[in-house]
């Protein structure tokens, strides 16, 4: 039976009321962005070794159960593993002959390839964990308000920030609705003699195709209804809108940001200084 | 005052396969009244709702809300006076936290922050959901979601609130609570409520009942009058509240029940007022 | 149906437990030890307030949940046991879901009714016969409806199509999830008549869950009342209705005649509440008010 | 900007409430397909999976115009950057850039071919929308040095599978949506007598 919701953590908000949850969302967004940038800048095992304790701290302070995150990420991790193996075989750089450990045709394993794949894996893990934790600890409303505030100045350049953010809000709003729709559809298929979780890849692809059609057609119908509902609630685009929520970053928020900046700088620069 | 004057509406009007949803409709609704609109599926109820909120415009005839004609150019003005709640809350809630969704409408009006906060608070209070204002919409029951949707409409401070079959997906207990809340709003704030439904028991709780059948107005009056025409209602696929129909059966057996009987309590009072039974059972 | 008195019940739950979203922070316990049996030819209604586990129980009977061993039995056999042929079992249980939109899988009526038999490998000619027979059985004329687009049907018609699709599978047990929800009075009346006819003609075993006690009491012989994932009452319909006060305390909306009788008991304390129809209430009242006749 | 309300379908390039909502819903489908892993279909090759996550962007472009296609593709891109199912999507330029173009390409082709046959237009825009995604992502991956050009070869079967899947799903959904909008009530007889099941 399809139990989709059990395995989805994207877009879920786990409210434990921890200090991470209470941080000003703009600070959280900037800190996340810093860590994303760090995942590109840091280019050595030592740098990542310095950064990963920050993730452990984040996980512990947020009080989001680690088991939940791990289980929800199992598919992702499994897939990442496969891709990394692929990366080793197809190492794009020039590996000196001395470092090649195994070779067959154009497939090869070299120490350079292994190192490249490992760094890539660490990079993706860092990125994945930070953005996942951002979503698990921040409600969608805060997230969107934060994005609107951060990018607000662009509105002066006629960038429709409010509208773009609303597109994202509606996307995320519909994810659980589609999940429950597809769970119902899959129950109906199963009950009518066509179970989803059985059969080879081609059968499954065909069944997926059948499943998608009602989702899309239903999606267009729902879009019509929601458009009407927003119209009658006087939505006329982002201009002239005001906001219920106000945000004020306090001292703690700035201190947290400072800590992240220092930590990222350390992970980026320290390894080089140590070697020098 | 809502004035519907000789209104007809056809989907794909003018084409050979046009569907006539409303035909030559005349209705006046005074402000501050509790009006139920009943009719089975396809009677034109939903089309009427769309016309009153400037989502569709009449093919013939005209509609005025508080003197403002409903036209494309006046749609924002109309929508600030008339709010509507639809059947399925999943298709109308925009934001994913209760308070923020309720604030969506007032935010669109560009109101100052303090006023939005005050409106949100009083709307949540009125629907009895102040305690879940910070909850995520996904985690709510259908009844709570529907209350959130109504609070969102209330926060627009409309003169008229239209409820377009909001109870049809709800279990009976939740539906009753919703109707109670709507009546309370009407009593306290004088807001007009137009409730579209096919539940006769719900309609019996309103001041006035309008019955539509295949796009025409077939009955219009206080519930006591409308439900007296039980046979005609059954003919167009609607039924009458049990207390009303039972009272007329008992009367036909010669039991002298007094007064208008629409609800269970009405019947109890009338039975209690009977000379003998009162004495029998103390 | 009971030529073998010792025959195992058609379906049975024993101490059935189930949680949704197990292993996540949002896990919800839906069934906390539900036991009951369904015998051949019976019509059983499962009622209870929202979140009482009604749908979960219905899905368990239809084998649509990840089941644990020793909890759900079909004709005496454990359906979660290794090696049990669940695919064959699903063909012998028909499910009618709450919203036909999620049950009807094809865009054309006839094609949808043919979906189940086709998936089960029934030959084309027999499928066509079954489609005709099932559509007629639910009161939809075969020549008129077989090529109709599903999206252009009314709610009541869609429900009939869903039911026809299940009948076409010729399953001995039919499970219904909220069969009446969202229909207007005309649609409900039609569907009531239809179920009555099916009961007379086919002797189907039916299990349905409903948040409307009124619908369930008219459609079923026996009611199981759930409260927070446990069985609170399990008895013939009238016996359950007699306990109107208890049902009300559970937060279940009473059928109109029962609610009215309960209101009238304030002045007529001996008025019974195990009433199914307006006529029964009328009779009971006339008996007590007869002397007040003018 | 704020033009076009509820039931008016504004011009294809307008950006009103309807465009916002449809793009949001389609983006939601892409995210749903990714977050539930339903959108990945195992294909026998090294990379493991073909995806249909780009189909919403194609449909947005074909049925609602380039703006909706662009926005729906953008949501898909942001999602695959946040949940990089392949490490190279950890680079936002690769994850988001090509995805913005999927719907635009699909729109241009659909509008161009619609006059000939709607089914053909849908199928071709499905194929080219899909190829926009594959070629864009792989091209940038080679440019950024994530992959040697040789590594592209084993991905070809996956690219073909994705293009075919996208074409099939696009045709079926476009038919379904246009049918729903047409308000027609009865289907034409299609199957020959001996195979007729209903």
Give an overview in words.
The complex is a heterotetramer of chains A (276), B (282), C (294) and D (198). Chain A is built from ten helices and two strands. With 276 residues, chain A is mainly α. Chain A has one domain (4-275). In chain A, a hairpin with a 2-residue loop joins strand 1 (100-104) and strand 2 (107-110). Chain B has two domains: 33-58 and 76-223, Rossmann fold, CATH 3.40.50.300; 241-282, no CATH class. Helices cover 40% and strands 22% of the residues of chain B. Chain B contains twelve helices and ten strands. In chain B, strands 6-7-8-3-9-10 form a six-stranded mixed β-sheet, with helices on both faces. A four-stranded antiparallel β-sheet of chain B has the order 2-1-4-5, covered by helices on one side. The termini of chain B are far apart. The relative contact order of chain B is 0.14. Chain D has a single domain (19-180), classed as Arp2/3 complex 21 kDa subunit ARPC3. Chain D is 61% helix and 3% strand. Chain D has six helices and two strands; from the N terminus they run H-E-E-H-H-H-H-H. Chain D has a two-stranded antiparallel sheet. The N and C termini of chain D lie far apart (50 Å). Residues 1-11 of chain D have low confidence and may be disordered.
Per the CATH scheme, the topology name of chain D is Arp2/3 complex 21 kDa subunit ARPC3
**Most extensive interface, residues per chain?**
A-D, 74 and 68 residues
Flag low-confidence runs of chain D.
1-11
Radius of gyration of chain A: 23 Å
Strand order of the largest sheet of chain D: 1-2
**Which secondary-structure class do the elements of chain D indicate?**
mainly alpha
What multimeric state do the chains show? Answer: heterotetramer
Number of helical regions of chain D: 6
Number of strands of chain A: 2
Gross morphology of chain A: globular
State the end-to-end CA separation of chain D. 50 Å
**Residue share in helix of chain A:** 55-70%
Q: What ranges of chain A have pLDDT less than 50 throughout 5 or more consecutive residues?
A: none
* Count of DSSP-assigned helices of chain A: 10
| Strand segment tally of chain D | 2
Total domain units of chain D: 1
Sheet bearing the most strands of chain D, described? Answer: 2 strands, antiparallel
End-to-end separation of chain A in angstroms reads 58 Å
Could you give a quick summary of the protein structure above?
By secondary structure, chain A is mainly alpha-helical.
Protein topology:
The complex is a heterotetramer of chains A (276), B (282), C (294) and D (198).
Chain A (H helix, E strand, L loop, with lengths): L18 H4 L2 H17 L3 H18 L3 H7 L1 H16 L10 E5 L2 E4 H27 L2 H12 L9 H31 L9 H32 L18 H25 L1
Antiparallel strand pairs in A: 1-2
Helix pairs in contact in A: 2-6, 2-10, 3-6, 3-10, 5-6, 7-8
Chain B lengths: L1 E10 L7 E11 L4 E5 L6 H8 L7 E6 L2 E2 L5 H7 E4 L12 H11 L4 H14 L15 H13 L5 E5 L7 H18 L2 E6 L2 H4 L4 E6 L2 E6 L1 H6 L1 H6 L6 H11 L11 H9 L2 H7 L1
Parallel strand pairs in B: 3-8, 3-9, 6-7, 7-8
Antiparallel strand pairs in B: 1-2, 1-4, 4-5, 9-10
Helix pairs in contact in B: 3-4, 3-5, 4-5
Chain D lengths: L16 H19 L4 E3 L6 E3 L3 H10 L1 H17 L9 H22 L4 H26 L12 H27 L16
Antiparallel strand pairs in D: 1-2
Helix pairs in contact in D: 1-2, 1-3, 2-3, 2-4, 2-5, 2-6, 3-4, 4-5, 5-6
């Amino acid at each position: 039976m399809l139990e989709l919701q059990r395995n989805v953590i994207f877009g879920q908000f786990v409210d434990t009321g921890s200090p991470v949850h209470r941080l000003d969302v703009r600070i959280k967004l900037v800190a996340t962005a810093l860590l994303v940038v760090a995942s590109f800048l840091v280019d050595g095992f030592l740098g990542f070794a310095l950064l990963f304790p920050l993730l452990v701290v984040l996980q512990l302070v947020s009080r989001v159960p680690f088991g939940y995150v791990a289980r929800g990420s199992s598919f992702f991790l499994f897939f990442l593993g496969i891709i990394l193996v692929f990366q080793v075989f197809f190492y794009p750089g020039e590996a000196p002959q001395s470092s090649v450990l195994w070779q067959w045709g154009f497939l090869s394993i070299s120490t350079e390839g292994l190192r490249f794949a490992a760094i890539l894996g660490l990079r993706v893990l860092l990125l994945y964990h930070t953005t996942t934790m951002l979503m698990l600890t921040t409600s969608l409303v805060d997230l969107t308000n934060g994005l609107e505030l951060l990018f607000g100045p662009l509105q002066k350049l006629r960038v429709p920030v409010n509208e773009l953010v609303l597109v994202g809000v509606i996307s995320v709003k519909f994810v659980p609705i589609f999940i429950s729709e597809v769970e119902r559809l899959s129950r109906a298929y199963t009950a009518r003699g066509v179970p989803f979780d059985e059969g080879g890849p081609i059968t499954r692809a065909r069944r997926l195709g059948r499943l998608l059609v009602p989702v899309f057609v239903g999606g267009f119908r729902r879009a019509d209804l929601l458009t009407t509902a927003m119209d009658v609630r006087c939505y006329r685009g982002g201009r002239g809108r005001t906001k219920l929520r106000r945000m004020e970053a306090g001292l703690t928020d700035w201190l947290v940001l400072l800590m992240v900046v220092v930590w990222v700088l350390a992970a980026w620069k320290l390894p080089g200084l140590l070697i020098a | 005052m809502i004035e519907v004057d000789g209104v007809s509406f056809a989907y794909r009007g003018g084409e050979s396969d046009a569907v006539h949803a409303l035909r030559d409709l005349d209705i006046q609704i005074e402000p501050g009244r509790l009006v139920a609109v009943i009719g089975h599926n396809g009677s034109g109820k939903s089309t009427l709702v769309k016309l009153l909120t400037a989502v569709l415009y009449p093919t013939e005839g005209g509609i005025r809300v508080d003197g403002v004609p409903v036209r494309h150019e006046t749609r924002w003005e109309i929508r600030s006076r008339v709010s509507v709640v639809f059947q399925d809350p999943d298709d109308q809630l925009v934001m994913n936290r209760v308070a923020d969704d309720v604030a969506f409408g007032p935010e669109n009006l560009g109101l100052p922050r303090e006023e939005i906060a005050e409106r949100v608070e009083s709307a949540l209070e009125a629907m009895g959901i102040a305690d879940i204002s910070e909850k995520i919409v996904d985690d709510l029951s259908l009844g709570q979601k529907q209350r959130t949707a109504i609070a969102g409409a209330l926060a627009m401070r409309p003169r008229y609130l239209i409820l377009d079959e909001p109870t049809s997906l709800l279990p009976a207990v939740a539906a009753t609570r919703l109707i109670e809340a709507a009546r309370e709003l009407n009593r306290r704030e004088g807001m007009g409520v137009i409730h579209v439904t096919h539940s006769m028991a719900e309609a019996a709780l309103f001041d006035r009942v309008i019955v539509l059948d295949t796009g025409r107005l077939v009955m219009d009056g206080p519930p006591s009058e409308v439900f007296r025409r039980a046979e005609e209602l059954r003919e167009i696929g609607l039924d009458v509240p049990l207390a009303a129909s039972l009272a007329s059966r008992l009367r036909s057996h010669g039991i002298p029940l007094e007064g208008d009987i629409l609800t269970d309590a009405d019947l109890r009072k009338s039975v209690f007022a009977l000379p003998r039974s009162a004495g029998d059972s103390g | 149906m009971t030529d073998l008195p010792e025959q195992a019940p058609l379906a049975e739950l024993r101490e059935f437990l189930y949680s949704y979203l197990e292993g996540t922070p949002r896990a919800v316990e839906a069934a906390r030890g539900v036991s009951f049996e369904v015998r051949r030819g019976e019509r059983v209604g499962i009622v209870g307030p929202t979140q009482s586990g009604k749908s979960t129980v219905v899905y368990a009977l239809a084998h649509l949940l990840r089941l644990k061993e020793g909890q759900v039995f079909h004709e005496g056999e454990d359906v979660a046991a290794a090696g049990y042929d669940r695919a064959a079992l699903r063909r012998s249980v028909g499910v009618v879901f709450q919203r036909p939109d999620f049950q009807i899988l094809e865009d054309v009526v006839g094609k949808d009714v043919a979906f189940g038999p086709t998936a089960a490998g029934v030959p084309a000619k027999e499928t066509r016969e079954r489609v005709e027979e099932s559509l007629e059985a639910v009161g939809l004329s075969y020549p008129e409806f077989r090529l109709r687009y599903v999206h252009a049907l009314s709610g009541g018609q869609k429900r009939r199509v869903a039911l026809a699709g299940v009948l076409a599978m010729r399953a001995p047990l039919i499970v219904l999830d909220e069969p009446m929800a969202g229909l207007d009075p005309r649609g409900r009346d039609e569907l009531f008549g239809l179920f009555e006819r099916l009961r007379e003609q086919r002797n189907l075993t039916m299990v349905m869950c409903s948040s409307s006690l009124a619908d369930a009491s008219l459609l079923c012989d026996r009611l199981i009342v759930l409260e927070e994932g446990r069985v609170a009452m399990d008895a013939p319909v009238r016996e359950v209705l007699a306990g109107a006060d208890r049902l009300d305390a559970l937060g279940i909306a009473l059928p109109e005649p029962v609610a009215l009788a309960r209101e009238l008991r304030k002045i007529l304390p001996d008025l019974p509440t195990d009433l199914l129809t307006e006529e029964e209430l009328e009779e009971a009242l006339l008996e007590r008010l007869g002397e007040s006749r003018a | 900007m704020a033009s076009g309300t509820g039931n008016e379908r504004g011009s294809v390039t307008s950006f009103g409430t309807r465009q916002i909502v449809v793009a949001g819903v389609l983006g939601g489908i892409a995210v749903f397909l990714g977050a539930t892993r339903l959108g990945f279909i195992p294909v026998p090759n090294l990379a493991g999976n073909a995806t249909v996550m780009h189909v919403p962007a194609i449909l947005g472009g074909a049925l609602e115009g380039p703006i909706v296609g662009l926005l729906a593709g953008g949501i898909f891109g942001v999602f695959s950057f946040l949940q990089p199912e392949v490490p190279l999507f950890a680079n936002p330029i690769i994850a988001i850039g090509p995805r913005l173009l999927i719907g635009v390409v699909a729109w241009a082709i659909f509008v161009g071919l619609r006059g000939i046959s709607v089914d053909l237009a849908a199928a071709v825009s499905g194929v080219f929308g899909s190829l926009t995604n594959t070629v864009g992502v792989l091209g940038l991956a080679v440019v950024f040095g994530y992959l040697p050009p040789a590594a592209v070869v084993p991905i070809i079967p996956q690219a073909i599978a994705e293009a075919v899947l996208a074409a099939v799903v696009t045709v079926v959904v476009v038919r379904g949506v246009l049918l729903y909008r047409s308000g027609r009530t009865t289907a034409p007889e299609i199957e020959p007598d001996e195979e007729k099941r209903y």
